[in-house]
Fold this sequence. Notes:
- With 430 residues, the protein is mainly alpha-helical.
- The protein is built from 17 helices and no strands.
- Helix 2 runs antiparallel to helix 3 (42-70), helix 8 packs antiparallel against helix 9 (244-266) and helix 13 (324-336) packs across helix 14 (343-354).
- The longest helix is centred in the middle third of the chain and has 34 residues, at 162-195.
- It is globular and about 65 Å long.
Amino acid sequence: MVAAPIFGYLGDRFNRKIILSCGIFFWSAVTLSSSFITKEYYWLFVLSRGLVGIGESSYSSISPTIIGDLFTNNSRTMMLSVFYLAIPLGSGLGYILGSSAKEAAGDWHWALRVSPVLGMTAGTLILFFVPEPKRGHADQLGGRIKHRTSWLCDMKALAKNRSYVFSSLASAAVSFATGAFGMWIPLYLFRAQVVQKTAEACTKDICSSKDSLIFGAITCVTGLLGVVIGAATTRLCRQKTERADPLVCAVSMLGSAIFVCLIFVVAKKSIIGAYVCIFIGETLLFLNWAITADILMYVVIPTRRATAVAFQGFTSHLLGDAGSPYLIGLISDALQKSYTRSVLWQFLSLGYALMLCPFVIVLGGMFFLATALFFLDDRDKHFVDTLIQRDRLAFQPQSKVLVFIASSLREGHSIEEISISISVLELVVY
């Protein structure tokens, strides 16, 4: 989380694939090294796991910007979807490969020695085979960016970009819910089974992990489905409205909140019903992963995208999954102390605490609706800024020029057509 802004700054100014490869190599080396740390140096092991986040920050901040410079429009949506499909797919494979390595070697340390090999391979392939596109290549800048603004100027511009700010807050709402679910939903479902008398109360240090495995499998599958359905739905809706991206995200968030609420209604009576609600709720929640990244590409100029992606991730973690598990646990503990301790009240108090999540999800849906209000204006401003970056405007655009550009965009004219018209305006002016 802390390293993301640093990689965002570097990614907007230096060779991105070298930075990306170095981050992956660092992550792989730290992971491999941590597998040899003995129990006497447990603190060092914990530190090494934290350092893994540096490598994760590199590719989460920079990879989307490379994709954004290679593809545009529906092609970019599809490629971003493929990229974000790797998150749930990789999570699932991590569980499978890690547990398989542990079983085969009879030592859990080997689970940390498999992924570094894959990481080193990926880093090498990126370094030697992935092209480094010019910033703005897909936006037809053609690499003709003459200058870059300062980091402070970039941050001021992003803070004034309403679509970016609201979509980042919505992303934080998604992160808040997923972080809380990952920590507490398996325990909540286990307590539900104890209340139903289909499971024994846990009195050991290590309890059954069945619910965690089932929930993890559901999360992997719903992540895959959500990204695919989200990309396909957005492509269809773009034929009806130019605000399709934020509207699809808003509707999916509001729909997700309904099914998340139903989890706490049906869990006491039916575990299967609760899993069905989790499946639908998470699928709708994950619909916006790739779309949110695509919104950012539409409203942020190429030379600020790495910084924008990095700070969006930073905000999502800071306001989302960095604190939501602790907050839910805090509320649950406070509720448990209010009444006599019992199995039923342990179950209910955790459920009441988790009810905060659907309200946060609804808030995220509201943020996406706010994004939809400003999306076209911010997209048009992004286009104007893009033209300025490529030095096609030798004069500061006045209000009439901005109106002309915006109306031309709405009528479906291409960037090159509008650029030619602006060149004519330059001749008239000078």
